[in-house]
Amino acid sequence: MRHSKTHPADPELPYSQLAPIYDHVMRHVDYDRWADYIQSIFERFGATPKDILELACGTGVMACILDDRGYRMTGMDRSESMIAVARQKALDGRRSIAFQAGDMVGMPVSGSYDAVLCLYDSINYIMDEADIAAMMIGLHGVLNAGGLFVFDVCTEINSRRYFHNQVDQESNGDYSYVRRCEYVPESRVQVNEFQLTFHRGGKRYATRERHEQRIYPVARLAEICRQSGYRVLGAFDGFSFQEASERSNRVHYVVRPA
Ligand SMILES: C[S@@+](CC[C@H](N)C(=O)[O-])C[C@H]1O[C@@H](n2cnc3c(N)ncnc32)[C@H](O)[C@@H]1O
């Protein structure tokens, strides 16, 4: 199933239902450490960005951390529901971060940025190579010459190791979910289905969400970057500066307009 690029409020869209509980579901993720790694990438490649655009910013956790560390942040995400959570988070913390809903493939963003981020395998939600190339080409319009684009993806070995025929579930009183994960090697698609139950105002609501992510070969993504007019400065194995390979669970790409 392909998701529309033009209807960000679509309740069928991944994360539209999950948004209110996303931060809780992801509470194991150490975003501060992730931010440290991003800053170490800036340092390694001599970048001193001031204005940063975060694509697929989700509920704005990273944007808030980087705002607190002194960067001027802008966030965009396809899901209106995720953006609503991000805006509230910024408001609660008295941060002035511009969050907007939009599909990164069409890149409906204005401004110019010293760095652009797209984190936590959000690129894997782009289901074909032509759309990744379109996104990368659109990015030239907002990324300053000499700026960095940093993104990461999850790999096939990660799907096979941790997300094939897996079921996990959780309940915390307000909500419960069951997640069923399956990797389909023929199409290189990771499918994660969430069955969610919420309790609100004494009523019980049940809903489902299906997530599909395309798993790209490590070298192929680097090639797409080059073909889209970028120099690949590195493709690094999970939170390190070691060269990534198909044995990596996560690969961090650092690219710059050529
Ligand atoms: C795994 S979440 C990561 C969110 C956030 N980057 C984080 O680290 O928590 C994936 C995010 O990608 C967003 N997304 C997926 N496809 C997108 C697209 N084409 N354009 C913009 N956002 C997209 C989803 O709405 C979701 O918020």
Key words describing this protein structure:
four-stranded antiparallel beta sheet; 11 strands; N-terminal domain of TfIIb; globular; 258 residues; 27% helix; disordered N terminus; alpha/beta
Describe the structure.
There is one protein chain. By secondary structure, the protein is of the alpha/beta class. It folds into 2 domains: about 20-155 and about 215-255, Vaccinia Virus protein VP39 (Rossmann fold), CATH 3.40.50; about 165-215, N-terminal domain of TfIIb (Single Sheet), CATH 2.20.25.110. About 25% of the residues lie in helices and about 35% in strands. It is built from 7 helices and 11 strands. The protein has helices at about 20-25, 30-45, 60-70, 80-90, 130-140, 155-160, 220-225; strands spanning about 50-55, 70-75, 100, 115-120, 145-155, 165-170, 175-185, 190-200, 205-215, 230-235, 250-255. The chain has a 7-stranded mixed sheet, sandwiched between helices. Helix 5 links the parallel strand 4 (about 115-120) and strand 5 (about 145-155). The longest helix is centred in the N-terminal third of the chain and has 14 residues, at about 30-45. The two termini are about 35 Å apart. The model is unreliable at about 1-10 (pLDDT under 50).
Helices, strands, pairings?
Elements: H1 19-25, H2 31-44, E1 51-55, H3 61-68, E2 72-77, H4 80-92, E3 98-101, E4 113-118, H5 129-139, E5 143-154, H6 156-162, E6 166-171, E7 175-184, E8 189-200, E9 203-214, H7 218-227, E10 230-237, E11 250-257
Parallel strand pairs: 1-2, 1-4, 2-3, 4-5
Antiparallel strand pairs: 5-11, 6-7, 7-8, 8-9, 10-11
Helix pairs in contact: 2-3, 5-7
This protein binds S-adenosylmethionine.
The site of S-adenosylmethionine (SAM) has 19 residues, from helix 3.
